[in-house]
Amino acid sequence: METKAQVLYDFTAEPGNNELSVREGETITLTNQNVGGGWIEAKNSRGEVGLVPEDYIETPLITPDNYKSHIDQTDQHCFSKMTSNGNDPWAVFDNNASGGVSNNWAAQPEGTETGKTSSNAWHSGGHVHPQAYQGAGAEDDEWDEEWDDVKSSGGYAESEAGEGGAINRGGAHVRIYTVFQGGEVGPVWAYPDYQLDCVVADPKKGSKMYGLKSYIEYQVTPTTTNKPVNHRYKHFDWLYERLLDKFGSAIPIPCLPDKQVTGRFEEEFIKMRMERLQGWMSRMCRHPVISSSEVFQLFLSYKDEKDWKTGKRKAEKDETVGVMIFSTIEPEGLPDLDLTEVEQKCEQFNRFTRAMDDGVKDLLTVGNEHWKRCTGPLPKEYQRIGKAFQNLSSVFTSSGYEGEAALTDALTAAGKTYEDIAQMVAEQPKKDLHFLMETNNEYKGLLGCFPDTIGVHKAAIEKVKEGDKLVATGKITTSEKTAMSKRASTMSYALQAEMNHFHSNRIYDYNRVMQQYLEQQVKFYEMIAEKLRNAHSQFTTM
Amino acid sequence: METKAQVLYDFTAEPGNNELSVREGETITLTNQNVGGGWIEAKNSRGEVGLVPEDYIETPLITPDNYKSHIDQTDQHCFSKMTSNGNDPWAVFDNNASGGVSNNWAAQPEGTETGKTSSNAWHSGGHVHPQAYQGAGAEDDEWDEEWDDVKSSGGYAESEAGEGGAINRGGAHVRIYTVFQGGEVGPVWAYPDYQLDCVVADPKKGSKMYGLKSYIEYQVTPTTTNKPVNHRYKHFDWLYERLLDKFGSAIPIPCLPDKQVTGRFEEEFIKMRMERLQGWMSRMCRHPVISSSEVFQLFLSYKDEKDWKTGKRKAEKDETVGVMIFSTIEPEGLPDLDLTEVEQKCEQFNRFTRAMDDGVKDLLTVGNEHWKRCTGPLPKEYQRIGKAFQNLSSVFTSSGYEGEAALTDALTAAGKTYEDIAQMVAEQPKKDLHFLMETNNEYKGLLGCFPDTIGVHKAAIEKVKEGDKLVATGKITTSEKTAMSKRASTMSYALQAEMNHFHSNRIYDYNRVMQQYLEQQVKFYEMIAEKLRNAHSQFTTM
What are the start and end residues of every segment in region (Disordered) (chains A, B) (predicted)? Predict the structure, then answer.
């Protein structure tokens, strides 16, 4: 007998994963309830069969606890989305910057660092801690399962050069990130001698649960070890959550490419996601603080399954997260900044990132419209011009008049040229506008993180401002107040270093993308001119 | 005391003529009733003063006769519009070709040529004979007046080389137009050794009625005599009416450029009209029959005012008009065609001109849309792209980060480049699409004449078909029927010669205009590529 069940929540299948999209209220037939891993195989009314999360459907199998974990999973959003609550992320600065933020490292009396628990208070405004996503013991089983798959499909020998990373990871000490005076530009992070990068490539389809559930695994090869490791999208997502937890207060951690990005074809989708994961990873590699962090090194160059599992659990238990990160930042040889200066810098960066956010969004809007025109009405028009010439040519051919073959051939060629141009116009955005849009999209993501990062600083500044009152009412001692100011100064140096990092990357990225864009545009117009020159040469001079 | 009057009919002022546009029912103030020449100076409610035809306004001065003449004048339209009655001009062939056409040269018993009066019967379907426009004695006075103006503003000495033309004009003989066998293409007109052309240039403002009424006079210089003559638009219009009357049954006489073409600026309007008059005159010059006709020669190379006036009156009394023109056409050394062949040729030309009419109209539609896009949304988009780059550049300038001047300068330059491109895009249609459109517009006009020309032939064919019945019922003799067939054959030769003339001109015109179009398009795209290359070079490679 078939078991029917009602769908409780919308679920959108991830392409290429054997999943089935279902809508809330839909009735589906359960075709296999023994799939395991939290999945059930089901069939919808159109006869389509696929996997659906078991706790998305109304069956007696599901406990209330499971619901919660799965709802959290689907509710997980980009950091900036979480804190902004869907409103203008910049609005927090127009109102009371410290509103709703009550507890932070910079404002706490010395020695009362509370680590992870207190850092969570930062994620106000509807934030669900990412721990809810991948932390539970039951989920760990799934991870273990996967690692068996990875082992069977990938296979990686004992690392020879990976020892350095392992030592870092294994050590019990807390890594210190240094800020130096970097010449004219001011405070900068300490950059490594060798700039890390990695290549994300070779997406391969894997499967588990006896082939019922498939997934895409990407090969990630760091330029340091040159040894590839395999990662699924959910591993990238895990890394993102770890980095956001650990560095989000000091460093903008851009969202991963959309989980639900859909291409019309699976291949297109995978290619696009890979390209964006590559962009994200390269940006992370370029960051001196992130790239040298234990968790990032683990992701890029774990030796084996055991190494990964140990590192993973350790990373999840890391207590130096949230504002605690500032306790690991050391402004080397830099004098303490007074509050006015800290405030000015913060305001300046706020203004700049806000203005750039507007500028980038404007360019994206214009670019999107241009994309639409280039792939829609414009090529259609060139096609119609081409057809009109060819049509006239065939009318002329029917004239019965001798000796006009030269004209009709030329007119046909001109018509075909405009049809070619139509196609070129339609395909061009993929060759140039695409990269301009991708880069600006990346920057939009990065800039979207700044309100949160700057918000942390603003809140700290407000607390320091309240310091005198707290001293007067005997709530903190004078030396505790001095320590608060010093911490605000450290935060400001971190922000300045981060802004300088941002600026130098921005200059590099925009130079590169504009060069690429204009180079392709030149080629495009030159090719059109060349095609038209050919068409022109076919008309005879009289 | 001011005299007020009500406007009886809409009147649209011709630009640069000191005229005042008025609407039916509007009340105007008569400021000067003694202007003369059929005009009254009036002022509207907005205080604008100008000339209005006196019989367009309700005053006791106007007689019912005057009304008629003026209504005819404003009702005058292009020939094809007259016969089509506003419907599809091709429809006549889908219905009964001879319907409503009852009287023509080809169908008449030999020797009963009725000349002008009978030819008028061709202009069925609401046709008002152009004679109503400029024939009346009162109008002649105006012409005389004008000639005084022409004399004073232009001035032309006794012609030295004009004697040949004068002899032609003065002679009482009827000119015979010959059709030859022209090699592979079939029957052709006899072409002159020297191809006539003329230059329409140097538009000058003249005035009359003590400066109250102004007009534009164009200098027309034939390549034969190289002696300029002056003509106003109304003279061209007079020529058009004469040519239409005389040759319209055998040769498509395209309309003059619209009388009411309006440019936003007077200069633009005059330039546009001149360009189109030039196109029209060149086309007439290229035609062997038209260019050698007395009336055309008169227009191009009259010796003096007296010569002009004599020639003008003679032309208006010319009786070889309408279908009578075929009596002056001599197929030299060509055998009589049988009716089947005549009919086949006629059908073939009908199909071709109809198909070409569709093709030309399609190209015009596409071209119009492209024009709109090139002058509207497309440059706006390039402008917005340019602004977005420049905007980003100015945001970057505000970063306070040292050493990004190279990027911001380059980004500004790129932005300006796209603004330049916007302007280039907007101005380009005037440089290329314009001529493509003008040529196709000319052809649309020409092709619009063919239904009438072909209609004359179809009617003649139908009459010949009825010939046997007429012989049987004793209405015509057998030899009269033979003469009818012979005349149909002559008409067919004329049509074939005309089609061959049309084809050879068409091949020349389309080769020329496509070359011109593509050449300008190549330049356009090359210039864009060049500009973008410059913009590209300003970004520094890292």
Answer: 101-167
The CATH classification number of A130-334 equals 3.30.1520.10
CATH architecture of B364-537: Up-down Bundle (1.20)
Q: Is A515 on the interface with B (CB under 8 A)?
A: yes
Of residues B136, B464, B83, the one with CA closest to residue B248:
B83
Is A23 a known ligand-binding residue? no
* DSSP 8-state secondary structure symbol assigned to residue B7: B
Asked whether the predicted pLDDT for residue A195 surpasses 80, the reply is yes
CATH superfamily for domain A3-72 = SH3 Domains (2.30.30.40)
The A39-43 sheet, strands edge to edge: A49-53, A39-43, A27-36, A3-7, A57-58
Contacts for B365 with CB less than 8 Å, ≥ 6 apart:
none
Give which of B443, B511, B523 to mutate to test A binding, by max A Cβ within 10 Å: B511
Side chain identity at B511, as an amino acid letter? Answer: N
* pLDDT tens-digit series, residues A446-490: 999 999 999 999 999 999 999 889 999 999 999 999 999 999 999
For residue A184, give the chain B residue with the closest CA: B402
Q: Where are the domains of chain B?
A: 3-72, 130-334, 364-537
Q: What is the CATH number of domain A365-537?
A: 1.20.1270.60
Q: Which residue of A has its CA nearest to B387?
A: A363
pLDDT in tens, B485-522: 999 999 999 999 999 999 999 999 999 999 999 999 99
- Residues of chain B numbered 338-357 and touching chain A (CB < 8 Å): 348, 351-352, 355-356
Q: What is the ipTM of this complex?
A: 0.74
Contact B510 A395 (CB under 8 A): no
3-state secondary structure B133-182: HHCCHHHHHHHHHHHHHHHHHCCCCCCCCCHHHHHHHHCCCCCCEEEEEC
Two domains, one topology: B3-72 and B364-537: no
Chain A interface includes B507 (CB < 8 A) = yes
Q: What is the pLDDT of residues B306-333, one digit of tens each?
A: 999 999 999 999 999 898 999 999 998 8
